[in-house]
Amino acid sequence: MAxxxxxxxxxxxxxxxxxxxxxxxxxxxxxxxxxxxxxxxTSSAVKKGDLFLADVNTQLKNKNITTDIKVDTSSNVSxxxxxxxxxVANLWQATLTVVYDHLIVVLLVYQLFTTVTVDEPCPxxxxxxxxxxxxxxxxxxxxxxxxxxxxxxxxxxxxANPIVNFSGVVGTNVVALGTDVSFDTKxxxxxxxxxxxxxxxxxxxxxxxxxxxxxxxxASYYHSVRPLTSTAVGGEISHSFSTNENTITAGTQHxxxxxxxxxxxxxxxxxxxxxxxxxxRPKSLFTISGEVDTKAIDKTAKFGLALALxx
Length: 311
Hints:
Elements: H1 13-20, E1 27-34, E2 40-48, E3 51-62, E4 65-81, E5 94-99, E6 102-119, E7 125-133, E8 140-147, E9 150-157, E10 163-171, E11 175-184, E12 189-200, E13 204-211, E14 216-226, E15 231-240, E16 245-257, E17 260-267, E18 271-281, E19 284-293, E20 302-309
Parallel strand pairs: 1-20
Antiparallel strand pairs: 1-2, 2-3, 3-4, 4-6, 5-6, 6-7, 7-8, 8-9, 9-10, 10-11, 11-12, 12-13, 13-14, 14-15, 15-16, 16-17, 17-18, 18-19, 19-20
């Protein structure tokens, strides 16, 4: 087991990864290359219905400083009939095509994300500076500190009236108690107030969290059945106090061989999902996933493909 309680985001993470990670209904392609100087360039493309998303991420490491520069592009196709009033603020971002009496607008939106991470300027401390262009209010400074009996993460927006976030966990690698809060200095109120408790032993991890300012209670567990084949089972129960509604999700995973993993999950609303993931070369993964609504068989099942290539 890991040393120390970790950060607040680690509470219930094993169960979340088992139940939700790698499931998708989109088409995704990712390729990573490395330059002779050690710069990693990752290009990704995702198709979600009529929406196409693409980004290029460049990562440069120098001793304990990591710089990530990500150019994100999204496009959407819209059809308008003459006479038309374009809801486009920046026409320089749009490609206009006239077909008969229709105007086809392909809107491209560009954003630049930059993250600078300084790992351990002193023992246990990590500093993260991030900002987004052209959003001048997106700057954020985050500090993370890990100790044998505590884990703290705090961030503040680099604006005149920032949102301040604080999360902290105390305990050991067996039992940990934590909280996660955000305060909007402009509005003068808390935008987030969560609390969590986790218990970990050799093959079982259980977590209990209270989210949405006390509106939602989540309980989850993860049980490693057979480590040699990565066989595990898990479940999550979520109760909403405002609607008095429960959501129950159960899932499992198993490695057919050292390179192939299958996962499946089902919830109380009748939705059944499954995936198979194959590592056809080191760090290169091919994933096929699908979802069926057993209470609406007449609806088309959802399918997703993901291909990640790394040298």
